[in-house]
From TrEMBL:
The keyword RNA-binding does not apply. It comes from the Bacteria. One of its GO terms (molecular function) is methyltransferase activity. The keyword Transferase applies. Keywords: Methyltransferase, Transferase. GO terms for biological process: methylation. This is SAM-dependent methyltransferase. Pfam families: Methyltransf_24.
């Protein structure tokens, strides 16, 4: 019987950057970095939006950021928000010379409140704001045909008990959205992708 390894598609061409971030992430004891499978999907989705404007809510140490940048073209821009300067400093060092990226140290909720509707082609919500709170405000920031993606939607071993009902509430909210097309994937850490319908 023939076997194929489709995970071969998921390797990064920026291995040095990924390696640097992985090492720094371990040093910091930061355990909320995006998985490589999620990153590979982010790369493909970013590549589908030439001249795109991207928003990442929750830079962390920059693993998701690295994958987004790998997929983006030279004319695209990524804004990445993080409320922990210590972890975001890793991304700052890793992407020092990439002028497509703007790293912002801010509370995600405050940032979302001050954004203009229909201003982003893709939003990766990897923090409480944009995923567990301010969901409507976040979705309103998408341009028609824009992509919203969240990860960590399958139960994780390190979730505290009170996190399950919170996550279930978000799942229900996303499932009941009107005028969108969505898909849930039991893959990686659990992904949901939503695209608002065009009028």
């Amino acid at each position: 019987m023939f076997e194929f390894n489709l995970e071969d598609f998921n390797s990064s061409k920026i291995n040095e950057v990924i390696h640097f971030i992985n090492n720094k992430t371990k040093e910091l004891g930061f355990d909320m970095a995006s998985r490589p499978e999620t990153g590979a999907l982010l790369r493909v989705l970013a590549a589908s939006k030439p001249n795109g404007r991207f928003l990442e809510i929750g830079t962390g140490t920059g693993l998701g950021t690295a994958w987004l940048l790998e997929g983006m073209d030279k004319n695209s821009k990524l804004i990445s928000i993080e409320c922990d300067k210590n972890v975001q400093s890793v991304a700052k060092e890793a992407f020092l010379n990439d002028d497509r990226l703007e790293l912002i140290y801010d509370n995600g909720s405050d940032f979302l409140k001050n954004q203009i509707p229909n201003s982003y082609d893709m939003i990766f919500a990897d923090a409480y704001p944009g995923k567990y709170e301010f969901l409507d405000e976040t979705l309103n920031l998408l341009k028609p045909g824009g992509i919203y993606i969240v990860d960590d939607m399958l139960p994780q071993a390190d979730w505290p008990e009170d996190h399950f009902p919170l996550a279930k509430g978000v799942l229900d909210s996303l499932k009941n959205l009107k005028n969108v097309v969505s898909v849930g994937l039991n893959w990686s850490s659990g992904l949901i992708i939503i695209v608002p319908k065009r009028n």
